[in-house]
């Protein structure tokens, strides 16, 4: 029984397939690493004050739950919360924001 040597085109095909598999594995590993890094950052910064880094505390304000830093006194709004606060005020956006801060 004789064993035939694979042709050059067969060798190229298998080498290309092997390279594609390795590239796919590398992309998946990079994606997992990026996800782990995002999760780590979220864990480190979740409910932390962007100004001083201390813990934020959720407080109720006009039917919304906003975050307040008890250390520096900062108030933080999530997306669309400013529009909800301003929507309940009369006048300009700046007047509404100033009125809100005057009350605290």
Helix percent reads 40-55%
Q: Strand order, biggest sheet?
A: 1-2-3
Question: Roughly what fraction of the amino acids lie in strands?
Answer: 5-15%
Number of helices: 3
Mean pLDDT: 85
- Return residue spans where pLDDT drops below 50 for at least 5 consecutive residues: none
Chain oligomer state: single chain
Order of helices and strands: HEEEHH
Distance between the ends: 92 Å
Instruction: Work out the count of structural domains.
Output: 2
Tell me, what's the shape?
Answer: rod-shaped
What structural class do the secondary elements suggest? alpha+beta
Number of strands: 3
**Sheet with the most strands?**
3 strands, antiparallel
Radius of gyration: 28 Å
What are the SSEs and their pairings?
Layout: H1 8-45, E1 56-61, E2 64-69, E3 75-76, H2 81-87, H3 93-102
Antiparallel strand pairs: 1-2, 2-3
Account of the 3D structure:
By secondary structure, the protein is α+β, with helices and mostly antiparallel strands. The chain folds into 2 domains: 1-46; 56-102, no CATH class. The protein is 53% helix and 13% strand. The protein has 3 helices and 3 strands. The longest helix is centred in the first third of the chain and has 38 residues, at 8-45. The protein starts with 7 loop residues before the first helix and ends with a helix.
Key terms for this structure?
3 strands, 3 helices, 104 residues
């Amino acid at each position: 029984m004789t064993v035939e040597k694979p042709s050059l085109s067969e060798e190229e095909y298998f080498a290309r397939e092997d390279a594609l598999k390795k590239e796919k594995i590398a992309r998946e590993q990079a994606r997992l690493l990026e996800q782990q890094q995002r999760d780590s950052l979220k864990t480190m910064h979740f409910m932390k004050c962007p100004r001083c880094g201390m813990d934020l505390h959720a407080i109720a304000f006009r039917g919304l739950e906003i975050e307040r830093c008890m250390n520096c006194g900062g108030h933080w709004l999530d997306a669309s919360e400013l529009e909800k606060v301003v929507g309940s005020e009369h006048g300009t956006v700046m007047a509404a924001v100033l009125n809100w801060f005057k009350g605290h």
